[in-house]
User: Fold Histidine biosynthesis bifunctional protein HisIE from Desulfuromonas soudanensis.
Amino acid sequence: MSLADQLKFDAHGLIPAITSDAETGEVLMMAYMNAEAVDLTVRTGKVHYYSRSRRKLWMKGESSGHVQHVREIRFDCDGDCLLIAVEQEGAACHTGHRSCFYRVWNGEGVETEGEKLVDAASIYGRADILDALYHVIQERRQNPTEKSYVASLFAKGLDKILGKIGEEATETAVAGKGGDPEEVVGEVADLFFHTLVLLGYYDLPPERIYAELRRRFGLSGIVEKESRGK
Assistant:
């Protein structure tokens, strides 16, 4: 009997997994696994999770190099929660902190505990930064604060989000006409960001866009457009 066979997954086929440092016991993060992620974790000795936003399996550190090496796996009395002790390479949190639990509520406000181990942007490469940014956008949406720009966009609704995309698209076109490469980079980054907010509004992870681009790859643009018309 496998470990997955002894666990109780929820209606979505997922189980929460709390990951801690094997040496210190410090809680590093909490994420979800499905049966396949559990099996891969046991088989490879490296922690795998299931991303609810991206709807796909992922291995911790697959793009950042911040791998979690399994030292022990426990599950609770009900079999519906995992506790995994690991040897953590680098940062566990996508923000660059050692642990995702780096914020402390002191009764009046939030204090930040510990310095970042790495610049969060350096953890990700190429399209991975879009996935990381989408994750942050969804977190801000689900846990809004008064100082969150993303939360304010969601609070103002779809029309506000669409308006910002139109605004950034126009500014991108103006920058392109102006001929300053740095301005083009900045405006395209703004456009990408607000487009990710729109994807978040509809709960569409960037992987859906990647899949559509892969589908179109190698096709004539004219042929592909005609096929959509039909």
